[in-house]
Design brief:
117 residues; alpha/beta; 3 helices
C-alpha cells in the first residue's frame, strides 16, 4: 500500500493546500514496515487537481492534518481514503503510528466554514 502525506518543512503539513511536497510512503501492511519513501512536488494547487495526481502516483490513502470537505469528497471519488486531524510529525512516524493503530487524530484543521484547503 502507498500512503500520501502532505509535507512542509519535513513534517506533516496541517493545511493540505499549503504543502511543499507530498511524501509517498510504500508500506508492507503485514509486517507494518516502510519499504520506500519518495518526496514529489505536487502540481500547482488548483481545486480538484491534487486527488487525480495522488491517484496517478499510486496512493490509496492520504493522511493529512486538515482538509476541506470538498477535497475529501473528490479523493473519495478516486477511491482514495482520507484520514484528517493527524499531527504535524515526521511522515514516517505518522505512517508507523497508523500501521500500529496508535495514530492519534484530533480536529480537522480545515473543518470550518471558509477553509478552501
Amino acid at each position: 500500500m502507498k500512503i500520501a502525506i502532505p509535507t512542509a518543512n519535513g513534517k506533516l503539513c496541517l493545511h493540505f493546500g499549503h504543502c511543499e511536497v507530498f511524501t509517498f510512503i510504500d508500506v508492507e501492511e503485514t509486517t507494518k514496515t516502510i519499504v520506500n519513501k519518495e518526496e514529489i512536488v505536487p502540481p500547482e494547487h488548483i481545486p480538484g487537481i491534487i486527488p487525480p495526481w495522488v491517484k496517478e502516483q499510486g496512493a490509496s490513502l492520504v493522511i493529512a492534518g486538515g482538509m476541506g470537505g470538498r477535497a475529501q469528497e473528490i479523493f473519495a471519488q478516486f477511491g482514495i481514503k482520507v484520514i484528517s486531524g493527524a499531527p504535524a510529525e515526521d511522515p514516517e512516524k505518522v505512517v508507523l503510528d497508523y500501521l500500529n493503530g496508535t495514530l492519534e487524530t484530533g480536529i480537522n484543521a480545515c473543518d470550518h466554514s471558509g477553509c478552501s484547503h
